[in-house]
Each structure stands twice: as C-alpha cells, then as structure tokens.
Amino acid sequence: MKKDQHNNETNIEEEDTLTNRQGHPITNNQNMRTVGNRGPATLENYDFIEKISHFDRERIPERVVHARGAGAHGYFEAYGAAGDEDISKYTRAKLFQEKGKQTPVFVRFSTVIHGGHSPETLRDPRGFAVKFYTEDGNWDLVGNNLKIFFIRDAVKFPDMIHAFKPDPVTNIQDAERFFDFCASSPESFHMVTFVYSPWGIPANYRMMQGSGVNTYKWVNNEGKAVLVKYHWEPKQGIRNLTQMEAEEVQAKNFNHATQDLYDAIEKGDFPEWELLVQTMSDDEHPELDFDPLDDTKLWPEDLFPWKAVGKMVLNKNPDDYFTEVEQVAFGTGVLVDGLDFSDDKMLQGRTFSYSDTQRHRVGANYLQLPINAPKKRVATNQSGGQMSYRLDRGPFQNPHINYEPSILDGLQEAKQLGKEHTPMITGNLVRQSIERDNNTKQAGDTYRNFEQWEKTELISNLVNDLANCDKRIQDKMIALAEEADKDYGHHLREGLKNASKGGTSQKPLGNIAGNNASQDAIDKSHGAEPY
C-alpha cells in the first residue's frame, strides 16, 4: 500500500518559505521558545539566536571617510580616441581602444566627513568612485567632485581628517578645528576657496563634476608613458547650492541627493558623464610655476587641453543597498595594463591605504563579493581568511600546488606582450616638501574666475565660520586671502571686522543659524506632562 506522503511531512516548504541560514524551514517567526507563554526564554533558541546575532552584525565597520553614499550600475562607452588623436599613442589599455566598446561599471557617490546617515546638504567634498569591470580585470578610478585636494602629502591625511571630523570631546564638528589645520597648512587654501564657495555643496550627485584628483600615467605598447589627469563632466549640467538654499533643502529631506539619483534612473532619465583627460610629458616641467604632481593644483586647460575619451551612462539602481553600495570597495592601486602610477605622493599613500582599509572593513576576501569581483576568470594561490567561500583556482590546476613556480601543473605567469614601462628614479631619500609650492596663486585665479554671486557667497561663508575662531587663525586666513588676491583679502578682512561676535564655531561648516539651534529647540518646543 502506498504511504500517505503528506502524513510523513513535518512541514510544507514552497519556493517562498522562510528558512534560517542553515536552510531549515521556519515554522514560527513570531515567538521565541520559552517556559510557558510568559518566559523565561531558553538558550537552545537556535532560530532566534541566529537571527538576533546576525542582526547584531548587520553593519560592517563604517567607512572612516565617505561613509554616506549612493550608487548605481551602468556602462562606459569608449570613443576609440583621445580627442582627435589615436588613443593608442598614449595607452594600450584595452577598454579605450575600440570606438563603441562598452565596459560595465559601478559608481559610488558620497560625502566625506560625516556618518552614514548624515545630511547630503553639508559643506563637504563629494566622492566620485568608478569601478570598471574590464576584460583585463577591474580598474578603480577613485576621486572627488572637485579637481584638487587640501594636501599634497599623504602623511598629513589622518591629521586632516581628524581636524575636519567632530571634536573628540564634544562630538560636534568645529570650524575652528577645521581652520586651525588649514591655516597651518597653507597648501589647503585653494581647496578651502572651492569648498566654502557654492562648489562646496553640489545640488545633487547627477549634476556635479568628477575628477581622479591624483596624477596617474598612461603607458603605450612601447612602454612609453605620459602623465594623465581624469575629468568627468556631467551632461545634465552643473548645479550648486548656496548655504541658505542647502539648509532649506535639508529641512525637507536630508536624503535628497540619493533620492534624486534613484528616481532619475527609475524613470529612465539616465545620467551621463563624458570622460576627458589631460596629458603631459612625464618630467618635472620647470617652465611651470607648480609641480604637476601637486594635488592642490589644476593643470591649465590652455596648456594641457582636455581630450574626450568616452562617456559613462548609469542605467540601473542597485538591487540591495548594503550588498552593493555599502560593500563595494575601491582602491587607487587597482589598475589594468596600460595604466600606471605616477610619483604623486598622495597617490602613493592612498594606494596602500584604500585596499588596506577594505580588508579591515569588509574582510580579507572582500574581492570575492559579487560587487567587487572582476567579471572574468580569477586564479590565484591565495586562500583562507575570514568568509572565504570559493577557491580561486584554475580549471586544470593541480589542487596540491598552491604556490608558484612549479612544474607540477601549478599556475603559470602570463606572457607580457606590451613593453614594460621602466622609469628612471634617482635622488636621495629625504623628508621634504616639493620645491614649487606656490600655495595661493591658483586660489587667486579661482577667486577671479568666480561669478560675483559665488564670490559673495564665499566671503559670507568664510566670515560666518571664521568670526568665531581664534584671532590668530583669522589673521593667517586673511593673510592667505590677501596673498591670493587683494580683493579677496580685503573683503574677508572687512567681513570679519564687521561680523557679530559671541557665537560658536561648534556647528556644521558654513551653517548659518547653528549658533542658536540648541536654544531654539527649547524656545520653540512644546511642554508635555509625563504619562
């Protein structure tokens, strides 16, 4: 007699049945196991313990910088040229060679200083990081919306971030700490000029520029290299906010830039950027009044024209924020054949720091995660480490051989066809700044290129924050402004002379009414009786 199959089943499992991580179907997700319906609970509550212990670990360590982010998938389409020149003259990187060739990308936009749910209206540089899933493996172009940076030497980066982060005692961002560092680091003045202007608050992620910031190299098939800078130009146009406009937006929605990007892609209004490059011969260029490897400087466009090399289109939102946007991991050291490092001291420092922090934040096997894994075969002799879930082995690799070289069917080195780039490096090992620092000239150029409303906003924002700083800091910032441009310095000096005193520097950078916010909360609130 055929047994009644249904009577032998302990549960009915369908495709959409809830299970635990072991694959066990969950029959009661409303109540933990207790002694009686009022408790206490027992230790063998496996389903509850698995659920709550995973919940306790749902957040990986937040990025120290660039914690607040949004992302999207898309593609990069090459023009097959650099401006009107054959791109193979400059680089042998495969993704650029063929007109119309498309490479999948994932882009993460971000703010820098504050935490994962901080307002997207804060005065702050924006991160602009692109992961290209090329046929030769991943290429990460990690940059910001602004084309320069505060410092030129990576050894100063932790101090810079400490100064810009909230005070370690009050846990409140403090403009005096910000300007204390910047006044003591005069190379930062050009970046301060940008950040305190409307360029310090982009309207959203779609309508801002992007830049590689660092100086890289391109290498052609003969092993010859040129210096290169990368620029992303939005086809949607560029839009920035004044401080007052930003505070009005923040009062309504502190996620406005994330929502703007998500909504635009959902309705098919796919944002696009054109990628342009500047190239320069790889030498010291004594004819310039700045060092081309100095990240606080712009390369003049009239001397080093922008050359269009392709465009990027973002056409798909992430399926899951955490899995993709939060776990995506970038590094400036992630280059493919035809791309190389320059001697840029910020780039050299970032190349260690970025990948090191990803191994700490996400884990030793972060490159096995789908969002980070290249879209091609991977075969290494690496194994082990936390959360390893596959072996990066070749299909014909002897499983006993996890080293190289070997004659016992282990992995073999690839044959290199392009000539190796072998730059000559000479000099004493020193701890010195570059010789042509020229800290304020380009800040003056930038100030003069601003429209009048941008100049007015810049001075207003600087005065608003500097008015509550130590006078020694004020004097130094005025001196830097005067050195950059007489009009710049004059307006900053007069603004500080006439500024109201008695406020506090403990508020978000540039914030207009932050001085009174805590008292306003009391004065404008409503009393209530206990319940």
TrEMBL record:
GO cellular component: cytoplasm
Stretches assigned to the Catalase core domain: 19-412
Catalytic activity: 2 H2O2 = O2 + 2 H2O
GO BP terms: hydrogen peroxide catabolic process; response to hydrogen peroxide
Biased amino acid composition, Basic and acidic residues: 521-531
Binding-site positions, heme: 354
EC primary class: oxidoreductase
Region annotated Disordered, chain positions: 1-38, 494-531
The enzyme's E.C. designation: 1.11.1.6
Molecular function GO terms recorded: catalase activity; heme binding; metal ion binding
Keyword Heme part of the UniProt annotation: yes
Cofactor: heme
Keyword Iron set for record: yes
Composition bias type Polar residues, residue spans: 19-34, 501-519
Active-site annotation: 66, 144
SMART domains according to UniProt: Catalase
Keyword tags: Heme, Hydrogen peroxide, Iron, Metal-binding, Oxidoreductase, Peroxidase
Pfam families in the cross-refs: Catalase, Catalase-rel
Function as written in the Swiss-Prot or TrEMBL entry: Decomposes hydrogen peroxide into water and oxygen; serves to protect cells from the toxic effects of hydrogen peroxide.
Family according to the record: Belongs to the catalase family.
The protein's name in its UniProt record: Catalase
